[in-house]
Amino acid sequence: MVTVKTSPPRTASLSLPSFFTSSYTFHSHNTYIQTQTPPQPEATQKKTMASGGGNSGKSDDFQPFPVKDQLPGVDFCVCTSPSWPESILHGFQHYLVMLGTTVIVSSTIVPLMGGGNTEKAEVINTLLFVSGLNTLLQTFFGTRLPVVIGGSYVFIIPTVSIALSSRYSFLTDPNERFKESMRDVQGALIVASFFTMTIGFFGFWRVFARFFSPLAAAPLVILTGLGLYSHGFPQLARCVEVGLPALIALIFFSQYIPHLIKSNRAIFDRFAILFSIVVIWVYAEILTASGAYDNSVSKTQFSCRTDRSGLTSAASWIRVPYPLQWGRPSFHAGDAVSVIAASFVAIIESTGTFIAASRYASATPIPPSVHSRGVGWLGVAILLNGLFGTGTGSTASVENAGLLGLTRVGSRRVVQISALFMLFLSVFGKFGAILASIPLPIVAALYCVLFAYVASAGLGLLQFCNLNSFRTKFILGFSLFIGLSISQYFNEYLLVSGHGPVHTQSTWFNNVMQTIFSSPATVAIMVAFFLDCTHSYWHGSVRRDNGSHWWEKFRSFNADTRTENFYSLPANLNRFFPSF
Questions:
Q1: Distances, alpha carbon 563 to alpha carbons 210, 370, 379, 463, 569, in Å
Q2: Is residue 319 part of a domain?
Q3: Cα-trace Rg, the chain
Q4: Is 19 a member of any domain?
Q5: Which tens digit of pLDDT belongs to each residue from 529-557?
Q6: Which DSSP letter does residue 395 get?
Q7: Scanning 28, 92, 357, 475, which has its CA 20 to 30 A from the CA of 442?
Q8: What total number of domains does the chain contain?
Q9: How far is CA 442 from CA 98, 149, 235, 272, 347, in A?
Q10: Domain carrying residue 442
Q11: How far apart (Å, rounded) are the C-alpha atoms in residues 144 and 573?
Q12: Which residues pair with 150 in a beta bridge?
């Protein structure tokens, strides 16, 4: 038996340009392993090639796919854009995708605060308006990636806790109760925003990102997508006769028609969201008009009918959201701590979304300083949420990152156009309310595909890791399993008992524990990062096994010339804010 070495030569890629480094290094590793086998006689080699040898004489058929620090196959990267008409359509598509979360979050928290359809329409338009501002700020001054900054599910737990607080029991007027609870949420968001800005602008997140490896990032990005599974098929199944056709239509338009219809222009795959929504929305309108749900229970009618949202009649024709529109914010220490915990989870999940967006925008790995800069501007976004009174904080939209992968258009300009749609349609509320009345099972069908794209971006990071290492297998498998398992336990306990497993006298402490440990991505990154930084870290092979050597040259902003092209600030602002 011949001993096979599994470590590549240290000088394999030193003399090659950076463009060829990834492919050569990976192939050299494989070649080095093969050269340890006993040499065959020349006659035997010729005989094998003549007979095909099971490989038709092609030596590269069994070679692994090369490692790519930029995702190939993307039609438009972060710095390039389609034509203006196509960019506008793509921007409108991004607007439709983010609209679902906006409506779901607002529809969840506003009734609990005491608000009706009018307040719900105003909160939705306010959240859309602020999301447009935050998206523009993030794409111009934050990470510069094509990410949408919108409402977050993470803040629902502390917001619901505030809305159900006994301190409002003396208020009998629902409108007054709504405004009072909204002002308390505003104060908590404002305090939490300073925590997030401190983490970002003072470089604390940059320190964390410097120790970030592909092995630790993979569970984070995977569960950033998969962790939202409860918003997929379970919501689709509330009206399966509408949701399931929407899912089938989206898959058919995006994955099958482009291969059945040969065309020089990518139409169906890039605009599959638009085609699917239009076709299934018309189909749902026909079902509603034909009386298919007239005798159904109220829950089915709410999910399936197209005329039950109540937003179109309640929305104003023209209304410009403004700061402190609900009154002066109130501040309570316990509420602020709970929302700070939600902000921490939003930072982690946004980091996973940033990484997925950088892959689908065909950008290089994000430098730690850019990670920190993005988190800082996320804090500014939460501050605007608090000032305007959106009822929830902000995070990077997971579904919009998935849309980058579906369309293969990672253009920054497209997302900035979508932000303009958010601003315009939030001011002209009637038009936005019509689009916001899309049945939620259709939105859930979109999520089934878009969240899956984000999860697959995380799986793509494993190309940088040594999957033959048992250390890699343990960290990857354990962090994924425990991330899903712990969050599922906390969420199920809350649904069954009405409170989380941590049930003490301190409501704020209960909310902190429930918020952090009900997030699969947060649990996974805490476990993966700790294990990656402590388990056998003194061994020389660890840096190659966890993929750190692939990201080494991107840890400094100026180490790779491509970094400046993707992440530099506009108007040469890097001269004044080098650390930002």
A1: 16, 10, 24, 21, 11
A2: no
A3: 25
A4: no
A5: 999 999 987 888 888 899 998 998 898 88
A6: E
A7: 357
A8: 1
A9: 13, 22, 9, 13, 28
A10: 84-313+329-569
A11: 13
A12: 395
